[in-house]
Amino acid sequence: MSEESSTKIERDAHNIQSRRQFMRIATLTAGSALLAACGESQNPAPPVPQIPTVAPDAVTATAQASLGKTYFPSPAPGVPEAFTLPLPTFQSVTSAPGRGGTVNVFSITYAAPETPKNMNHYWQELEKRLNVTWNVTYAVGNANYSEKVATLLASGDLPDLFRLNTGIAPSLLQAIQQGAFTDLTPYLTGSALNEYPNLARFPALLWQNVAINGKIYGVPRPFGFTGGTLLYRKDWAQKVGVPNPKNANDFFKLMQGFTKGDPDGNKSADTWGMGFAATGIATHPFFMNMFNVPNQWRVETNGSLTYFLQTNEYKAAVAFMTKMFAAGLFYPNSLTYTGLQIKQAFTAGKIGSFNDGFSTLYDQRTKIKTLNPNADVGILVPFAANPGGKANYWTSRGFLGFTGIPSSVGSNADRVKELLHILDYLAAPTFSLEANFLTLGIDGWDNKMGSQGVKALTPTGTNEIGNLTNLMSGPLVYYYPSEPPLAPVAQEYTRRLLAIGVYNPVDSLVSPTAMKQQATLDTLINDRILRIVRGIDPQSALNDLIKQWMAQGGTQIAHEYAQALHR
Amino acid sequence: MERQVYTDMVRWDKPSFLGQSILYLTMLILAVVMLFPFLYVLAVSFSSSRDVADGRLIIFPAHPTLAAYSWVLQGGQFLQGLENSFFLVGIGTAFNMLMTTTMAYALSRRGVPGNKFVLWAVLLTLLIAPGIITKYLVVKQFGLLNTLWALIIPGAILPFNLVVLRQFFLSIPEELIDSAKLDGANDLQILRSIVLPLSKAALAAIALFYAVGHWNSFFDATIYLNNPQLYPVSVILRLLVLQGGQSMTETLTGQTAPPDQTVQMAVVVLAIVPILLIYPFLQKYFTKGVLTGSIKG
Known about the structure:
By secondary structure, chain A is α/β, with parallel strands linked by helices. Chain A is built from 22 helices and 17 strands. Chain B has 14 helices and no strands.
């Protein structure tokens, strides 16, 4: 990654991150509404009502008044804004982005097919607002994605907007490097980015992380920079007398309390300290974080790379996990359960803690409260295992896939700009006119006003909206209509986590050996570590594992990444 | 009938009471073991979220509910998927049978030019299968992409079924065919009036293989079909399971899906039910047909 472009991105984006962002939103609000009340005679749908947009001055005034009360701006880079009340609706795009043609999209679907276009009012309205014909082809879930991508690339029949997820289909990295997708760096860096106001709102770190070998090949879909976090039962922690663990010993006591201290008070030993999914034990985030294990790779002063497996910190982490297993503090079913089943075990009150993505916090709090109103779920921010040591937090790249434009389409600069304007529309921030439409559809038809003045999707709405525009969304914000006070709490958790955050230094780099061998090596490492943790193999087996990893491609991978890093 | 058999038998051939009861007991245990998974699937599909959370997913759910089924069946996508699957099974199997029987008959007659070569070419495809991309490109060039025919025409004749059917046709006495020829019948008439009526068992078995294959088609559907209205029911059910597994996002709290396991089990039940309904009627052909071709004459 070139030095000058990263600081340029950082400089430009820093301005946006400040509170003055709000003034910008207000000034962008145009007087004229984007949508007209349309009621076609042959269309039996209810006419789309005129959305009352708030005059710019009123938006600014409300924003200033709610600072610190219902609006909590981002305290640090990468930490989302938090709201306990929605903002007044504002307009973020001044004119329809499309020029009337057709846009073919390739994305992944995780839901049953949407209502067909001729009966789908949301779809028709979307096409009006974007001013294009919107056609979507889907891959059926993540599992189908890599095959579908392979056939699409081979057939040469590429869509205009291509959802790229190199995590699910690593072969895409090769396609990208060979020029299958347009290099969008000139369109999305520096002053050119300001043409797309919503994309310019993205955190600078996002643009840095999505770059591959220093070039931007697509617009990232923001997701939040948090990685795996440990969710735990705060009410149980209170009950067993360890409400505030500060080091590994405290943590061990907490786990013992969960397992042996009968935290649910039902007089039977049916609870355990932690559950884990066996396929993720080798790099279980919380233990990695407590012992300051580097996030996959560590860059040494001489420029070489050390794998987490080879570090002393990792040895200590594995020893601790073994100690916990030997003491019977892990949920026995962890050895066979999937991540989803562990999550369900937590909801059912069988385990006191488990690792999952940050967004599960709200989900779990709601689910558990329906079964047990006294339950309280929180996030345990990692602390140093030993006094005087350091803890870290493995952050993620901050996006869930990115949308690229195939080279065949990208040769026409005007077309690229049109497509980027469309993505800009889809990236509208929460509470904007556009975002409200994209997520909630047509008022009264796709959504209804529920209790407490919160709009909720109707079944019709869920079927109409589906995954039509899921390839892009606005930046993450914390807003929970059914539990408003959680938003600033979540923001504070995120701030504390990212403050000790470490990034994976090789995330956007390519290593040919890694593309071939990573999956095999990951399975090997996980199987062996599981054996060590269970006590089947001694701790010294870790040294043998390291040697094996090096022989089976590890050294080669380290060398290739080091080269790519210093290119 | 049983008693009649026993009275015909000599006293020391009658199975002893002890032996019989042990036999029955073993059979009962085996039956329970085999049936239990299906009963479990059924029970979970009728369970409520309360039962799932409590972890008490036993044979008779404490709070039975139809929530999982109504969630799967709402929105009409399931019925659309059923329509497509029925098309595949009906039209597809008919097409398969047409192609397979005519080819098997032709390959089973002596003296047909190119006989050995064609048979050899068919067996070669058993050994060498194309990759996804090559198959995709061929299907694309024939213009079959995004139609249900992409799931029917490529692979219309399965080499295994062809060989089995050919073997069966070979076992029909040549004299029958010759006498029909003497009466002036041409090949098509022979096939229709003599060979097919004699082969009912084999045809039923092969048709069943094809039909079940079409009902289960999933992978090809996801690759060749872009229009979601054409997805067969297997793909719809997979998507419903995926949808049920998603965590709630704040803005989309229109309705919460029932717990994932209940949705998955409801999906399994709905996918098996049509086959279960048809199977008893075809069972006698199936058991006879499975032995087809294994014993000569």
